[in-house]
Amino acid sequence: MYQYLPVASLGRMLVKCGALIAAAAPLIAQVTPVASAKPKDDSVITLNPFIVESAKATGYRSQQTLVGSRTAKNLLEVASSISIINREMIDDMNAVSVHEVLQFGVAGVTQNVKHNDDVNIRGFRTIFSLRNGVTKISYKRNPMYDVERVEVIKGPGAMLLGNNNFLGGGVNLVSIKPSHQRSSDVQLTFSDHNYVRLAANLMGPAYKSQDLTIDYRATVGFLSADTDKEIWQEDQKFLGGGLAMYFGANTSLLVNGYFYKDNGYFYWDDFLDYTTTLGTTTLPMTARLNRYSTKSFSPARSKNAFWTNQDSFVDVTFLTKLSDNANLRIYYFGGSVVDRRRHVRGITVLADNQTLARQDLPLSLDNDTNNIQGDFNHRLMAPGFTLDTTIGVDASSSPTKQDQSVNVMPSLNTAVAGFPNDDAYFAVDRPGAGLPNLTSTITRPTTLSYYFQENLTLLRDKLILVGGLRWFRPGGSDRNNVTGVVTDRPNTPFKTHKYGIVVRPIPTLSLYYTDSENAFPQAGFTDRFQGNDALGAPLSVQEGTMKEYGIKVDHAFSDRISVYASYANYDMALTHVRTLGVLPEGRPPGSIGIVESAADFVQGWELEYGARTKLSAGVFDLIGTYVDGKSQTAADKTVMAADFVPKKFSLMGRFGWTNGPLKGFGLGASYFDQTRKRNANYWVDFPATYNVFARYDWRKNWSVQLNLNNITDERYIVGIASTGLVQVEQGFDAKLALRYKY
């Protein structure tokens, strides 16, 4: 019988684990060389290659990341396309979801839906975000109350991330690290519809002695709001924190965690114009909202629908310096999601173009994630070269239980106000709501993987050769709780790779090339004579491949002017795609069945750039992106891949006055646009949107900020699941924030 681990039990278990590790850490520290008995305030174990120095960020520019290789690297040294959105950008946008920040500073990433972190990266879908480098299962938008920066790595992520699912790339949310310096950051944000959001981060030293330093972070978050739609609401409560314990100068233990409760309701609650949006995959029609799908339209009343979500996680990172050239990292991540909901949704628009066929969808989801990683890094230095070797192992388990029913309920005449038949319908028990669910399943995927990566640096850091291999051993089982049938999950072991080269002719310029892949074993057979006979060849292992070359620049012309940019040209493919086609020995000839086509592919180039200029009156920061690409599906080479956006543009700038009568005042604006995409049988077009923001700082600690988003009030479609299942960007949004920081 499936059981999920209660949050309280999970917390107690991790506290005990942390106490044991903390107790053992001084013993480990005693057998490791100690460079200094007393750690410096801002440089504790900074030589450890698993530590990122985020303090090096200036303006919208950040230099270092862990996500490219699990060891801290300067972006110019990484043979990959990596984008970083730092805290300053997040603050300027006053962002509450990852979608808001991914529009700017990151090329090739577009939004699929609104209610969770589902994105499209270079034409391939990425459903979940990462949290501190590990996949964070979440069925709603991940909270941003304690996020220090957002990192995006492009391309197959199996070798680097230990997760084989990220083909287009991964989005990593990094927690704020506890600081040696006592500080606080409290912000209250207000908007219409009774919108109130609190985000507070307090941190500083908790304890300090000759051999032990403890820093803390405490985070509190709250969000409450109504909306134009009667069925929608915001209701969030967040409590998080972190501890950083330093045992001497060479050993540390870092703990992050949060408890997050989101009872807000945001779902697919709009519908299309039936008369103008019918199309096919090969001949899509432009999607248009129905005239009755207004900003205030709801497919049901709030009292008949709910979506409660309880999300918690904790991670523990143990770092120690074993010698002058060897470092060890041990990492644990544990998460739990308890998701309960009842969606009342439109599913199809009837021929009169105003009647909405509806479904009642009770659903419950429980997920537990456990991930353990171990990484050992060694540096060999010799005349003429440096060899960095990293070896590691990952083990993960992520069981999920899902109970669901789909009940047909009375249709809704959207041209007439009210819900005349709903009281009678909801007065009766239904499957999943008073009666047993129609479906109940448990999936228990497990994965063991191990890897090594070599970085060989030659010619006084002018040439870097990168190579790595990772082996995966998947396993687990699936169970249908209705029938009792248990099915083993595919357990074929496979290997992935990443190779690259970086050339740095001068310290501020690098050129790189990379070749990486994911692998996806497939179960089953193709057809041979007729559809569904499964008499053909076994389905091949799919390969997600990428070849990419690029240029990176990070150059300061003077202490007043600096620029940074990256250009990437990529060729990506998913091979052995299972599609329908003409069978090789079809009877009769021309019979259609399951075949394997060559590949889905995406090709294109991306440009990300930024600049910082210091003038006599103040500082100007600029960041922009541009992407241009094309895609092709295996089933039909004339059809663009679903949700692929050929072109995307963004620009964001800010000027902050540091002298003169406007000292303390800052003004900024941003622009975003993308070309249309194919979503199922429709073209979905995105209009250009414009944001402006202004901030005034006074008395060193206080600031007030105004954000005006989507100032042209564009109400546009974000995603489509069917003619009656649509998500829409609702239009103009204004937020006023008061902030205290020291």
What is this structure's SSE topology?
Layout: H1 7-30, E1 64-65, E2 73-74, E3 82-85, H2 87-93, H3 98-102, E4 109-111, E5 119-121, E6 124-126, E7 130-131, E8 134-135, E9 147-154, H4 158-161, E10 169-175, E11 183-191, E12 195-208, E13 212-226, E14 233-247, E15 251-262, E16 285-286, E17 306-323, E18 326-349, E19 355-382, E20 385-397, E21 400-404, E22 407-413, H5 422-426, E23 430-431, E24 434-435, E25 439-458, E26 463-480, E27 486-488, E28 494-506, E29 509-520, E30 542-556, E31 561-582, E32 592-614, E33 618-632, E34 647-657, E35 665-679, E36 682-698, E37 702-709, E38 716-722, E39 725-729, E40 733-741
Parallel strand pairs: 7-10, 16-36, 23-24
Antiparallel strand pairs: 1-2, 3-9, 4-5, 5-6, 7-8, 9-10, 11-12, 11-40, 12-13, 13-14, 14-15, 15-17, 17-18, 18-19, 19-20, 19-21, 19-22, 20-25, 21-25, 25-26, 26-27, 26-28, 28-29, 29-30, 30-31, 31-32, 32-33, 33-34, 34-35, 35-36, 36-37, 37-40, 38-39
